[in-house]
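Entry 14. Structure prediction run on the chain below.
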Amino acid sequence: MKSGQNDGKINPKNEGMIDSLLREGYADGRVAEAMRQIDRALFLPPSQMPSAYLDTPLPLMKGQTISAPGVVALMTKLLEVRGGMKVLEVGAGSGWQAALLGFLAGEKGKVFSIERIPELYEFAKNNLAKTNLRNVQIIFGDGTEGLPRAAPFDRIVVTAAAPQLPPPLLEQLAEQGKLVIPVGGSFFQELTLVEKSKGQLNSRDVLSVVFVPLIGKYGNPFRLQP
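Output returned:
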């Protein structure tokens, strides 16, 4: 087994972080197990390693961040990814969220993660290579337009703040599908859960959050270029 997934040894710092997320309700049992197997430390630049298990966002490159573990856990929990599902992630970042989703989707599932910034695209690909996951594909492009060739998706997650729900993502969401996305302005958003049932979309706000702006055709109109 390649490094990147737990070989039976318990990382005390990682376990402490996970226990805290469980107590606070951000994670459930399945998300906790994914975080045990997919260590956040493997998805960070060397300079950020000392902060790997703090529940805080950390800087990457090009002004982007890896989200706080609590937010990542909550978004993953809301998605309720099951084995065999097809998942789309908009904004690969470090690749950690995609790896967690890949673990939950299992060998029969598939995760497509789209990244627009070249440096992050390469960073995420290199990080995922540290794991033994074979069901996660990092794609370079504008994630706000979704991925029509692979649609529909059982689950969609967006890891940057959109001014509104991107229409292509709503169109590419499968029946009984779930979409989790931060919606709002550049400095303050609501983490929103959208569910599709009988062709109808129902949404609710879950938590106030702060994400970097979503870049792309259906993202922040003032941040069309990285």
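The chain is about 25% helix and 25% strand.
Filed with the rest of this week's runs.
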